Amino acid sequence: MADNHYERLGRELIHKGAIIDYYQDTIRVENGNVVKWDLISHKGAAAVVAVKDDGKLLMVRQYRNALDRETLEIPAGGLNSVDEPTKEAAARELEEETGYVAGKLELLLTLRTTVAFCNEKIDVYLATDLKPGKQHLDEDEFLNVESHDLDELVQMIYDCKIQDGKTVSAILAYKTKCEKYF
Predict the structure, then answer these.
(1) Is 33 in contact with 80 (CB distance < 8 Å)?
(2) Contacts of 118 (CB under 8 A, 6+ apart)
(3) Which pTM does this prediction carry?
(4) How much is the average pLDDT of 28-47?
(5) Residue 181 pLDDT > 70
(6) Are 166 and 117 in contact (CB under 8 A)?
């Protein structure tokens, strides 16, 4: 919803990328000045907190170019189109990355990654009743699947070993849900 104190006067596509598009917006701000603001447009993503029958969470360890190192994250991936239902994308990414299929998927939370300059939205699902499927990674995707206890993952967050925003948010939301209901 736009704020009536701000008016977008124009939007120029600066670069169209494989994952994101970079725009420069011209905005009239509330004092009447005209400013240029950057916008990173993203079609959205879905992620999964996948809980095995033994209570351990499935995690993926993979190299991330932006950080030039490996990270430990929940399974996730971009939508194939802006219209793809996030629940379908979550199910797809879970199987592609971990080789598991969820018997039950329920929305855990929705988050916006970087609201100052990016419109990316990630719906995070809780996946339970996991059954073995078939892992099928993209040809440029190399990752290892690991299982971790919830308390271990929470400690890794507080030890700054897990820093990925979607993963931090999802693990802490799941922990809160567990404490509330169990």
Answers:
(1) no
(2) 20, 39, 40, 41, 42, 112
(3) 0.91
(4) 96
(5) no
(6) no
For tokens 């979550």, name the residue.
90
| SS3 call for 171 | helix
Answer whether residue 38 shows pLDDT above 60: yes
Answer yes or no: are the C-beta atoms of 148 and 59 closer than 8 Å: yes
| SS3 call for 178 | helix
Respond yes or no: is residue 146 known to be catalytic. Answer: no
Catalytic residue among 70, 95, 139, 146: 139
- Over the range 96-122, which residues count as b (16 or more CB within 10 Å of their CB) and which as e? bbbbbbbeebeebbebebeeeeebbbb
Nearest partner of 164 among 19, 52, 47, judged by Cα: 47
**How far from chain centre, in Å, is Cα 77?**
7
Least confident of 58-72, 73-87, 89-103, 136-150: 136-150
pLDDT of residue 127: 98
Q: What is the mean pLDDT of residues 123-138?
A: 92
Tell me whether residue 20 is exposed, middle or buried, using C-beta atoms within 10 angstroms of its C-beta: 0 to 12, 13 to 18, 19 or more. middle
DSSP assignment string, 104-167: EEEEEEEEES-TTTB--EEEEEEEEEEEE------TT--EEEEEE-HHHHHHHHHTTS---HHH
